[in-house]
Each structure stands twice: as structure tokens, then as C-alpha cells.
Predict the 3D structure of the following.
Amino acid sequence: MPPFGLGLNASTLRGTPVLQQIAAASQAGFQALELWFTDTDAHLAAGGSLQEIRRALDDAGLSVPTLIYLGNWFDASEPLWPAVKERCTQRLAQAAALGAPHAIAAPPPGNANLSLGAQRYHDLLEIGRREGALPSFEFLGFVDSFCTLESALQVLEAADHPLGTTVLDPFHVFRGGGSIESIALLQAPQIAVSHFNDAPASPARTRQNDGHRVWPGLGHLDLRRYLTLLEQTGYRGVLSLELFREDLWSRDPFDVAREGMSHLRLLLD
């Protein structure tokens, strides 16, 4: 089996309360759970606390690779930037309180100013260094400007910060029209987390969205090559199962988590 920890992204259990996500991931045998701010916000709104979530994670023996996600920061205008920066500061502090070393920083959906975004990312990295959780810049295969690993590396290079990282995901590599061979451009310290999933052969790549993702091994992506390249970078972090499927969200989260683990182990073994 490849030398990665096995994690579950809470997107796979969307609609499930966060404490139940923790229980489902733990019972299925996962070692890590990526949380979403929307779910932690819902817990707080219902009268819960971050400390309660942290205790549940610790009791379950689950690490938290990332909190998801920081938005609307990349090309925020100068008048808006102070408020956006303050919100991101709060989010990074929340991630740190839950033991997460990173929070995922999403790219802008349309065309964007690389120079401005790189400066914003540098600023957020400095904030993250102070708060205890660092932003990780994610590329998404269906956005305009930052849909490939190479484009994410442009942001990291322009930000010129030693703590800059990106997020890998086989679906986004495929959807953005890139090649998994581009993983060889990375070194382990540049990878915050690797999401893991598969994609069907149809519909066409450019027509696929998050909801088309399938369990690893049920699609057409060369995931074994992906894992080989990932291991060769020196990465030894979490392989985090991430799907966005309404058919899974309507099912018992404990069954979904167990099914996801079985597909992971079948492929990895």
C-alpha cells in the first residue's frame, strides 16, 4: 500500500452534522477528516463550540489536514481587501483551533490578475504563519485562469513565499486538461493535501463537474500512475477521498464512509 494516510473529505457526507461526520469517518477506519467551514459554522450557530469539535476529533483519533475554504480573496479590490483579509484571518484562526495546518484558498472563477492574486496570497501566508494555519492555493479544473497544476505553480512562484503550497486532485488535473505527469514538477513541501477520486469516460471532459466524480477505481483515470508520481515527490501526507454526489448525500453517512474506505483499500492494495 502507498505510504499515505487515508482521509475523508466531508464533502462526501454533505448535509451530515459535523460531529456525525467525525463518528462516521472514525468508524470506517479513516485517519483524517477534512472539514468545511459551512459545517463548523452550522455547529456554532446551533450552540456548539470549536472546542467541542476538537475534542470529538481527538477522541476519534482523527487529524484535520485542511479546513475548506477561503473565498473571494484573490482579486479583492483595495476598498474590499481589509474586510476580506479580516475574514480570512478569522478562518485561519479557526482552522488552527481545530488542529488543521492548512485552510484551502480557492481560486477566482473568471479571468484574474496574477500579480495582484500572488500578492494577496503572500499576505495571507504571512497571516497564516502568525495564526498557526496556512492558506493553500487550490487549482480547480473548471475555472478560467487557474485550472492546471502549472497555473497554480505560477501563483506560488509569483507569491515568492517559502510556505506556499497547492492542493492536488486527480479530477481537477483531468478536468483542467492537464496531465498527471505534471505532479513531477512538485516537491513534497509544496503539497498541502491530495484529494482522491476518479472520473468517468463520459460525458466529455469539458462537460464534467463536481457531481460526475466517482469512487476511485470506477472511472478511467490512471490513479496508479498518479499515486506513483505523488510518492516520488516525497509526499507522505493524507490521501483524502473527495466526492460531491447527491446520491451519496441522501444515504446513511456511516454506510457511505464504509463504502468509500472499501473502494480506497481495493485500489491501494
